[in-house]
Amino acid sequence: MAEVQKPRTPRQKYGEELRLRRVAAGMTQEAVSEGVVCSPTLISHFEAGRRLPSPDDAQRLDRVLDTDGFFARWLKDLDSKYADHFEPVAELERQATEIRQYGASLIPGLLQTEGYARAVFRAHSPNHTAEDLDRSVVIRLSRGQLLEAPPEPVVWTLLDEAALRRRIGGPRVMAEQLGKIAGMAEAGRLRLHVLPFGVGEHALLEGMVYLMAFDEAAPVAYVEGLHTGHLIDDPAMVSNCQAVYDLALSDALSHQDSLALVKATAEDYAHEQQ
């Protein structure tokens, strides 16, 4: 029986058309990247549908390939439900075979419960409407669905103890959130490590990093700040981010000790409700 082919996504169609136009123009990915002023790896991501170009990059693609604004116009029809700086990350994490995430003072979005996510969005959107808040929560929770189909991606979760102690949404929400993480760790769905306060300084004190690896593409790293983020695909910089993550991981508690701490902290929150 012939294998049923999955329908191509709009992103994949965009990337395939880009590849066809490039080949028709007799250009290599390297030649296009020089005109767009980016890495050949990024052009490869575009053509595979793993990433979309920015509006400026789409305009440069049109100039390099002499496509009269074709890719810039099509890009406008591929609006994302995510913020511009996070949109490529959301797409890539669905294709990743391994994810390594770090939570400094917050539980990473990929693991958040509804109550936890709602409290986070409510805190930074003081003038929100109920509809906007609900939409943000639904979008956040939809990311976690990729963890419902094991065995991939393999997920490493490194949490600062501050993420366990910061009372987001109150004790009931925290008990539920930490209970979810403990349950996933016990089930083998994620590898859990906690950086306890007793460690003091560690390699990730000054920022967050999100690492993704793939079967048929180079790994990437993502760093984020307030209302901004940067996806890194330069091999040297990605390697440096991986090294920093490994340094912090070496200072963390073991998986079993981390699980015990998360479960004990969840129980403490649960007792506060009684």
Automatic annotation (TrEMBL):
Q: Which organism is it from?
A: Streptomyces gossypii
One Pfam annotation, family name?
A: DUF5753
- The name under which this protein is listed is Helix-turn-helix transcriptional regulator
- Domain HTH cro/C1-type spans what residues? 18-70
